[in-house]
Design goal:
two-stranded antiparallel ribbon; alpha+beta; about 160 residues
């Protein structure tokens, strides 16, 4: 799924480029609607009595964004047999060039903060739908307008 956004003045540093620490927030701008669209958003996990903290965050900075540049952030979900969630991200500037790439790994914990060994049943069911080609995004009109593309794939 790809979402668009404009770089805000508060996000740039004294060099006039986006401060490196904001890219994780940009990733979340795309990760959140992607998860929500497939029934695996933050609240879906909580409703199923599990939480998904970030275990690993990696960013490669390739070309800086600047104010007030338009950017797009693409999020890709890589399904795994393990009890984890793997996302990949591609940030593009207004010229279409890749500004940054990265990925996150989220653990799945029960509400007592103990790691799960296997995915919770609701996530396993989503993964099985995806394997059978039956996974369909649930988007409302507002989400459909802000979304440019949508992809879910395996590494």
């Amino acid at each position: 799924m790809t979402v668009g956004r404009r770089v805000r003045f508060e996000e740039v540093d004294s060099l006039g480029i986006v401060w490196h620490g904001h890219y994780s927030s940009y990733f979340d701008d795309a990760r959140t609607p992607l998860g929500d669209a497939y029934g695996m958003g933050y609240l879906d996990f909580l409703d199923n009595r599990v939480v998904t903290p970030i275990r690993k965050l990696h960013v490669d900075y390739l070309k800086p964004l600047s104010y007030p540049e338009n950017a797009s952030i693409e999020a890709l979900l890589h399904f795994s047999e393990a009890a984890r969630i793997d996302y990949e991200f591609i940030v593009r500037g207004g010229d279409g060039d890749i500004s940054a790439t990265g990925y996150t790994v989220q653990m799945i914990l029960d509400l007592e903060r103990r790691p799960l060994i296997v995915p919770p049943p609701f996530l396993a069911a989503i993964r099985e739908k995806w394997k059978r080609g039956k996974l369909v995004a649930n988007l409302n009109a507002e989400e459909s307008q802000t979304m440019l593309t949508e992809r879910v794939r395996v590494p």
